[in-house]
Amino acid sequence: MQRETEAGQQFDSQDSKPSNHAAQDAKSPRKHWLVPVIVLLVVAGLLISGILSRVWHRATLRTEAAQMAVPAVSVVLPKGIGPALEIVLPGDVQPFITSPIYSRTDGYVKKWYVDIGAHVKKGQLLVVIETPEVDQQLQQSRSNLLTAQANLKLAETTRNRYLGLLESHAVSQQDADNAVGTYNADKAIVEADRANVQQFEVLQSFEKIYAPFDGLITARNIDIGDLVNSGNTGNVKTDLFHLAQTDKLRVFVNVPEQYSRGAQPGLNAEVTLAEFPGRRFTGTLVRTAEAINLVTRTLPVEVDVDNPTGTLLTGSYAEVHLKLPGQTSAYFIPANTLIFRSEGLQLAIVKDGKIVLTPVTAGHDLGNAIEIVAGLNADDHVVVNPSDSIVSGQAVKIVQATLPGDSK
After folding, report:
1. Please, where are the H alpha helices in 70-172?
2. Which residues does 296 contact at the CB level (< 8 Å), separation at least 6?
3. Which is more confident, 294 or 20?
4. Beta bridge partners of 59
5. CA distance 389 to 220
6. What letter would DSSP give residue 395?
7. If you average pLDDT over residues 353-361, what whole number do you get?
8. Model pLDDT, residue 24
9. What is the pLDDT of residue 341?
10. Helix, strand, coil share of the chain (percent; to 5)
11. What whole-number distance in Å separates Cα of residue 196 and Cα of residue 142?
12. Residue 30: what pLDDT?
């Protein structure tokens, strides 16, 4: 019985081994096809991810290329001029009245009474000149006058006597006429000698030179003992003094031709000088030449400035600020926005992201800014420093915009 039992167990154990082999054989085909599928999926995933990455990079490059193909521009908004346009021009400060004081007679300087910087009044004595020659000529003329008067008196007596005798026919008519003619000739000689005396008296009065008006002595060119000549001679003329009236000054300005229409008498002006920083002196444009200078192409104008305390010095260099009437439809733009082509003066204006080349008409040129009187609106975006190849319809993008207040 024990042997049978052992034999049965051996038999059962032998039967169980083939069944395990069969299960293992059933699982092995699955393993064979599962691994390739996983590998295939991994490879497919790698391929798909690579393709997608390339597609994404290509799309990005296309977008960047498209963006880079659109040029970036800076624009500026026009600045309105307003009711008045201020221009600054160089001016020459001169006295309201200036006069060189000459001698009207020949002689030597005896004494002078004023020096440079002296304020004098009208009629004040400036210098005394010794004129010995004039004095002698005056004395001689007076003697000649006395002689002529004596001759005239004798001729008058003779004439009266002859006329009386003529009534009684004691003398001939010819003798009476001769007496009358002699009297008339002597009378003319007396008048000539008297005029000659008056002339030398006037020359003698020029020994003393007086100030012709209130003013400031700006130059003295004589000293005691100097020989001076009459101002009307052909010799070299040297003024004894130079007198200037400085309580009111004239500032002469040359206005460019393009501003000449606005420079009219009555226009207010302000004068500034380097020696008075931050200070402005009020003046008025009083007159113009009403003609353009052919050499400078400017209009000479005069601005008068009150100077009661003598603050401003004559001969100074000044800057004159003129506020000319402006055009409400005109604008200022930077000079670097202009395009010069055969079609004329143009501006590149950005509208809806595209360039529009617009012809314009320029007005006043201020150097760094240009006045545009036609073809421009207040809300136009004008391209700064446009390229030479810019054309209408070209797409652009704005990277910087300047406000109107900063456009000048």
Report:
1. 132-167
2. 254
3. 294
4. none
5. 68
6. B
7. 87
8. 52
9. 85
10. 35, 35, 30
11. 8
12. 57
Q: Is residue 219 within 8 Å of 242, Cβ to Cβ?
A: yes
CB atoms within 10 A of CB 217: 19
Angstrom CA distances, 168 to 125, 154, 162, 176, 178, stand at: 64, 22, 10, 12, 17
Q: What is the token pair recorded at 278?
A: 């931050």
C-alpha–C-alpha distance, residues 375 and 338, integer Å: 13
How confident is the model over 251-276, as a mean pLDDT?
91
User: What are 104-162's pLDDT values in tens digits?
Assistant: 888 899 999 999 999 999 999 999 999 888 889 899 999 999 999 999 999 999 888 88
Give SS3 for 79.
Answer: strand
Q: What gap in Å lies between CA 285 and CA 270, rounded to an integer?
A: 10
Say if CB 239 and CB 245 are below 8 A apart.
Answer: no
Question: What's the token pair of residue 57?
Answer: 């990079």
Which helix (H) or strand (E) covers residue 84, if one does?
strand 84-101
Q: Hey, what are 199's tokens?
A: 């002339």
Neighbours of 256 (CB within 10 A): 16
Residue 242: which of 95, 72, 375 has the closest Cα?
A: 95
